[in-house]
Amino acid sequence: MYIIIYRLVDLINNGFGLRVLIVIMLGMIQFIFGIDSLAKVVVSRMLLAMPSFAFYLILIIVITISGDKIETTGLKTEKLLYTLKMDDQGFVNENPSIQDQHNDFITFLEKLRPVITVSRFVSVNRNLLPKLLSTIATYTIVLIQLNSMKS
């Protein structure tokens, strides 16, 4: 069952990894246009960029929450398997073949945990949003400094 879940996540990564990267990049570009318009005080261009930025931001948040849920479920499954292994009275410790399969499954789970990635470059989880926000904040600060130097 777990191998099916892992292969499904791998299929999602292969099929949609580039598309997730494009969505994140489009969201960043839309926000950069909005910040740039705000710094230049071009209200009409800023108003055009904000609705599409809001759409991409919501899409990025939904993708991030989904990726985090998949990764968290993998961690919970791993903890559950360790709990079963430590149980002295459990079914796992009675049968040696089941114990071997259980150990193999734990090893497999440690090495190949399902994680949604952006083209196998950045994992999409709850740590992605602060990275994006810090990147946007850094760009905003640099843009404001460059525009103040021009004036």
From TrEMBL:
GO CC list: axon; dendrite; neuronal cell body; plasma membrane
Membrane-protein topology: Multi-pass membrane protein
GO biological process: sensory perception of taste; signal transduction
Location(s) in or outside the cell: Cell membrane
Keywords: Cell membrane, Membrane, Receptor, Transducer, Transmembrane, Transmembrane helix
Superkingdom of this protein's organism: Eukaryota
Membrane-crossing residue ranges in chain numbering: 16-35, 47-67
Record-given protein name: Uncharacterized protein LOC114346563 isoform X1
Organismal lineage: Eukaryota, Metazoa, Ecdysozoa, Arthropoda, Hexapoda
Name of the encoding gene: LOC114346563
